[in-house]
Amino acid sequence: MITKKTFITLLLLVSANSTFAETPASLVSGYAAEAAKTSPGFTPSAKRGQSLFTNEWGVSQKMPNCTTCHGKNIKAEGKHVVTEKRIAPFSPAANPERFSSAAKVEKWFKRNCTEVVGRECTAAEKADFIQFITQGG
Q1: pLDDT(121) > 80
Q2: Which of 10, 12, 125, 132 has a Cα at 20 to 30 A from 88?
């Protein structure tokens, strides 16, 4: 018979070793909740997300917008304009790994927003962007 203490210990070990994948919807919800702290009533917008994706930011001549490397078709592969490395499709429908890790999402938002937009993206922009990508572009 397993004691309560043993059961709790096993449960903690299993939980510590499990990796729980995020979903695009859970990421949008988290960013939207964060954005609502400074903008009460904030609702993610695919239209604003598309604008973030296609806007010519003017920070870099080689990377004026996201489509430069990711392409206009979010279900197709892209190619980094500087390194020429392959970029997996943005769309979770074409790439199920996309938007499945909050840590990876944050890493890439920080890097790409800084390079293309010229600053880190806000929580509202992140929510809008993922909303746009998950609605099929």
Answers
A1: yes
A2: 125
